[in-house]
Specification:
The complex is a heterodimer of chains A (about 500) and B (about 170). With about 500 residues, chain A is an alpha+beta fold. Chain A has nine helices and 23 strands. The chains are: A alpha+beta (about 500), B mainly alpha (about 170).
């Protein structure tokens, strides 16, 4: 009898697994960000839209036809609900959708509470505009207040910022679009909650001079904070005079400061030998002008000036808004009618030798070739000053290739961030996609200070470097984690 | 022993019914939900990859004929309506940010109108999907893939897409 029960049990288990009754987890992660407690208010994830419909054009081979249902999961102690504001969805259409779970309509706003909710019956197709939902997260304000009190208590109890518990849970919204049992599209937003930098007073200070736009700069601090305690990449924010807690004489600790601010070059002070034990120190950091990396655009294909100009503008916007401290100055050379240009340059990295010896190359700067070939972009391993952009590139390709040139490489060792912990689809070094808008501080640090970055190789930056370079996946007391990130920028 | 045999027969037949990739009357393979998810994710990773140096095409080719209907539809129609709408919104948002940025950073000038800007990258997006689909169909091969490429070769597509289709047809097995 016991044996039979075992047999039936295993039969059930195996059948369960084979039939795929287990829910398949969503693969795509649209947004995974870190917020400190004080930043939690009602959140509207940046650039987040959820169109009703399948991700691929045939939805899934052989799967049943419309309608599409939405399975929505709202999770996390601090999350009360998500409000989905629908565009292109008439109230009468909304009222015809079935709801199982906690969802309720207010006009064309759907408020969905915690747990799982099923919205059924979206009919899409035809010529009408696609319904699109814009999510807004509603947080539990009382829960946030309690968490703030806990964090303040820790600071009051004398814990240094580095010692305060960082992890405060997370909030997650997952929207899976389904046809029958088939998930045909999904959108996933995760907010991980941390403590805010809250130094114990009295405190040593960092004084930022010439912070151009009075930006909320990001400071990474290494130093000694206890008899044997070394702070490693503790993050502080501020625009002028910033409390950093008690930083002691260096002892055996690495002591340095990196500052990132938009419209200024990244400042890297290493080693910092001026900290003393009393909390009266003020470390002055002079924010110097942003670095300008010269770039020559070689327009091998006719009619590419407008696109190249747009790509350059977006690269400048992305690097600046992420506090990388590097701007790009473009010079455009239309060589589409120049005899021999296309042959010499070719359409890929095989020609880098010929290119570097030709008139279509400017040494010691970035050279970007817009060529007539169907690919997106590539930065050549054999010469990091050479980038090709093809006919199917998107508006973030150039910024991405600059990242490779600035030492975020090779792709399969952290140069691409796909699947790496702490990264989502918004990172510029994601190996594809059109929603890439962010660099982490870990990436910005490497792009600036790695000896292999072309910003240093080309002499655009002359400050201290990491030699050997911090490989993307190397984390140590002198190499911050690649995913180390401070938001908002 | 009889019970064990019965259980084994049940297991095999159930598993077979659940997992089999069958061809329906429509010619479309029927996949289980998790097979369909794997296919979608594998195909999407390839369609959108930047340098594609991490085995993205090889993973699609490994799916074999199962991927041909999706790739054929992608070659014919490009990205889905939902994906296009998402990109259109991202591009419009980027354009507005660029115009705002331009006010304080004149060196970062965008010469195109919003409509031109969105069209430039939306057209590239459609072409990217079609180019990738044509490449994968050529690498997978077989009569269905060849038929999809031949049909597409007669359509008024962009030159870079046409060139890829031609190359795929010349090299298809």
């Amino acid at each position: 009898m016991r044996q039979r029960r075992h047999q039936i049990f295993w039969f059930a288990v195996i059948t369960f697994i084979l039939c795929g009754v287990v829910q398949v987890s969503a693969g795509r992660l649209d947004l995974s960000t870190v917020l400190c407690i004080d930043e939690i208010i009602d959140l509207e994830p940046e650039r987040s839209w959820i169109p009703v419909g399948c991700e691929v054009v045939d939805c899934c081979p052989g799967c049943p036809g419309p309608p599409i249902d939405w399975r929505i999961n709202v999770r996390g102690d601090l999350l009360e609900a998500v409000v989905l504001k629908f565009e292109n969805l008439a109230p009468e259409q909304a009222s015809q959708l079935g709801i199982k779970g906690t969802g309720r309509w207010e006009g064309t706003n759907l408020q969905v509470g915690k747990g799982e909710t099923l919205i059924s019956g979206f009919n899409v197709g035809g010529s009408s505009a696609l319904p699109v939902a814009v999510p807004r997260l509603v947080v539990n304000k009382e829960g946030v207040r309690r968490l703030q009190q806990t964090a303040a208590g820790e600071a009051d109890a004398g814990k240094s910022p580095a010692d305060q518990d960082k992890d405060r849970g997370q909030m997650e919204v997952l929207v899976e679009q389904m046809i029958g049992d088939y998930v045909v599209n999904e959108f996933r937003f995760i907010y991980r909650i941390t403590r805010c930098p809250r130094p114990v007073l009295p405190s040593d200070k960092i004084d930022l001079d010439n912070n151009t736009t009075n930006d909320s700069a990001v400071i990474l601090l290494d130093g000694r904070t206890g008899s044997t305690t070394c702070a490693d990449d503790t993050i502080f924010r501020g625009s002028d005079i910033i409390d950093v807690g008690s930083v002691l004489t260096n002892g055996a600790c690495n002591s340095e400061v990196a500052v990132f601010s938009d419209d200024n070059a990244m400042q890297f002070l290493t080693p910092v030998n001026s900290w003393t034990d009393p909390t009266t120190d003020v470390l002055r950091v002079n924010m110097t002008p942003i670095l300008h990396a010269p770039v020559t655009f070689w327009l091998v294909r006719a009619g590419e000036l407008a696109r190249a100009t747009g790509d350059l503008a977006n690269a400048n916007l992305l690097y600046n808004s992420n506090n990388v401290g590097i701007a790009f100055d473009g010079t455009f050379q239309d060589i589409s009618g120049t005899a021999g240009a296309a042959n010499t340059i070719g359409t890929g990295c095989a020609n880098i030798g010929a290119i570097a010896g030709s008139a279509f190359f400017t040494p010691n700067r970035l050279n970007v070739y817009y060529v007539d070939s169907a690919f997106t972009g590539v930065n050549c391993t054999g010469n990091r000053n050479i980038i090709f952009v093809g006919t199917t590139a998107n508006n973030q390709t150039l910024a991405h290739e600059f990242g490779h040139s600035f030492s975020l490489s090779p792709a399969n060792s952290g140069g691409h961030t796909n699947g790496l912990p702490g990264f989502d689809g918004t990172n510029i070094m994601q190996g594809g996609g059109a929603g890439r808008t962010h660099f982490s501080e870990g990436q910005a640090f490497r792009m600036n200070v790695n000896v292999t970055s072309t910003i240093n190789v080309n002499g655009v930056r002359t400050g201290p470097v990491r030699n050997p370079a911090c490989a993307p996946l190397t984390t140590s007391n002198i190499c911050p984690a690649l995913a180390l990130n401070a938001t908002p920028k | 022993m009889k019970l064990i045999a019965l259980i084994l027969v049940l297991m095999v037949s159930t598993a077979s019914a659940c997992r089999r990739t069958s061809i329906q009357q429509t010619g479309q393979p029927t996949l289980s939900p998790e097979q369909a998810l794997t296919l979608r994710q594998t195909v999407m990773t390839y369609l959108e990859c930047e340098e594609c140096e991490q085995g993205e095409l090889e993973a699609v080719v490994k799916l074999g004929q199962t991927a041909v209907p999706t790739l054929s539809a992608t070659l014919r129609d490009g990205p889905s309506q939902a994906s296009r709408e998402l990109l259109r919104r991202q591009l419009s948002d980027t354009y507005r940010r660029l115009k705002e940025y331009e006010k304080t950073h004149p060196e970062a000038k965008v010469s195109q109108s919003e409509e031109e800007y969105v069209k430039t990258y939306l057209d590239n997006y459609i072409a990217l999907y079609q180019v990738r689909a044509a490449t994968a169909l050529g690498s997978i091969g077989g009569p269905e893939a060849k038929r999809a490429l031949e049909e597409a070769s007669n359509k008024p597509l962009r030159d870079d897409v046409k060139a890829t289709i031609k190359h795929s047809l010349e090299n298809i097995k």
